[in-house]
Design goal:
Length: 466
């Protein structure tokens, strides 16, 4: 079968393209650019890469056209496909029909922690000897690529994104993922460009959980009241998980982690000690993610728990999630995807636990949610773990001034409580400020859900030239 992907250079679409090639299909794809590393990667898979969106890219009459959610209704290729009646589907639709229908989908959902938890789960199942497949919205550092087909009938780990599917399918992606089991890490209002209010956002998760079969599994974080509420209506077996110290209401977690000295955690299942795990990532949020992944891998996928725990130290994480970019003049520079205030706070708190010198946070508000004033009052507290906070300008110029996040007000609030903060007029100013503030032994954490104009590398260069 010849499959053509419109918007093939995106993270999810390129991962789907790799799965289709692995399944034996002929694949072509179009996009506005094929910059490294994605361009050479796709070409290396034998995918025909067509630069630019134009109707002539469909001259070969593909058997299936997959439309990525980057495409607008006026995309010439999407219009051509529909006008000619070519079979056309969204990315989640293609995954559901051609991949997930033949496998056991293990879906990792939630506002925070999806990518890291899904990557860890896929890694653990591989180490346990299962022939599991995976589809991850990031670049896993333990694998050569972000997707793998795996064996038919085997577990298939997929990151459950609640964002919409395509311009003709304005529903959350994870509604199409046929979950046999799911993890629900958290629910906190996000994606304000898609969901008009918090109720609409929570409703997306309610419907997702309702899709679980009666013989399925749901692993839910007991420390989130909304997760507890949504999980209570699940039609399947529910296993709550938590860390010692989490406020869990009336829930007694089935799976519990108790943090121990030296980056370790004692894991309890059903009240019994299962073993001591050496945590591969910093922070309480990542400890919770680890509990969730261990629980699902052992119960829903049947992998030996002792083997899973033994594999943890080898986990390298995901690109742009606590990723060490480099060390210059004794300063460690990390890149992280955090942008929601909760994720920012948890990320910085994790680094603070192990930082030897000052912790310097460099933040670019770029996502649809972070760029707006929805969480204006939450950001000053979110930067609480940092010794120095440097704020770059809002990364979306199209947002009206009255809606745009006020970075100067955030910096002022942080300064008023006695900490150091600076709102910068440009990315260049933010890079220079970070390098100027750092001394040997300090840690710089750069946070954005976009490229941030390569700020981590530019900070390393500025440190070298200082």
């Amino acid at each position: 079968m010849h499959v053509h992907l419109i918007g093939v250079a995106g993270t999810g679409m390129s991962a789907l393209a790799a799965l289709l090639v692995e399944a034996g299909h002929r694949v072509s794809g179009s996009d506005t650019a094929f910059d490294p590393p994605v361009g050479p990667y796709l070409e290396g898979l034998g995918i025909q890469c067509l630069e630019g969106w134009q109707s002539s890219n469909l001259a070969a009459n593909p058997d299936l056209v997959v439309v990525g959610n980057v495409c607008r209704r006026d995309n010439p290729e999407a219009q051509e496909a529909m006008t000619r009646g070519l079979p056309t589907v969204s990315m989640p639709g293609a995954l559901a029909e051609h991949v997930l229908s033949r496998r056991k989908p293990l879906v990792v959902a939630g506002t925070h922690g999806k990518t890291t938890t899904a990557t860890l789960l896929a890694y653990l199942l591989q180490q346990a000897g299962t022939d599991a497949g995976f589809f991850i919205g990031g670049i896993p550092l333990n694998f050569e690529r972000s997707s793998r087909l795996g064996r038919e009938g085997a577990p298939f780990v997929i990151e459950g994104d609640e964002y919409d599917s395509a311009f003709f399918e304005k529903v959350p992606k994870f509604w199409r993922y046929r979950p046999a089991a799911a993890i629900l890490t958290s629910i906190e209002y996000d994606h304000v460009d898609i969901f008009p209010d918090a109720d609409a956002y929570v409703s997306a998760f309610r419907k997702f959980v309702a899709l679980l079969p009666k013989d399925g599994w749901l692993f839910a974080w007991a420390g989130d009241p909304l997760v507890r509420e949504v999980a209570s209506a699940a039609p399947c077996k529910v296993r709550f998980y938590a860390l010692d110290g989490d406020e869990c209401g009336d829930i007694q977690p089935m799976w519990l982690g108790m943090l121990a000295p030296g980056g370790a955690m004692d894991l309890f299942g059903g009240g019994s000690l299962c073993g001591r795990a050496n945590l591969p990532l910093v922070g309480r949020h990542n400890a919770r993610n680890t509990v969730a992944a261990l629980a699902m891998a052992s119960e829903a996928a049947g992998a030996p728990l002792d083997r899973l725990i033994a594999a943890l130290p080898g986990f390298r994480g995901t690109k742009r999630r606590q990723e060490l970019v480099g060390i210059t003049n004794g300063v460690h520079v990390y890149d992280d995807f955090a942008h929601h205030p909760t994720a920012v706070k948890e990320t910085l708190a994790g680094f603070k636990e192990r930082a030897r010198g000052k912790l310097i946070a460099v933040f670019e508000p770029r996502s649809a949610t972070a760029s707006r004033r929805l969480h204006q009052e939450a950001y000053p507290a979110a930067f609480g773990p940092a010794d120095v906070c440097i704020l770059a300008p809002v990364g979306r110029s199209e947002i009206a001034a009255e809606e745009k996040l006020d970075t100067h007000a955030i910096a002022e609030a942080i300064t008023n409580r006695g900490d150091q903060a600076r709102a910068c007029a440009s990315v260049e100013e933010a890079v220079d400020a970070a390098a100027a503030a750092a001394k040997p032994g300090d840690t710089i954490v750069v946070m954005s859900n976009g490229r941030f104009e390569d700020a981590p590398d530019r900070i390393l260069l500025a440190l070298l030239q200082r």
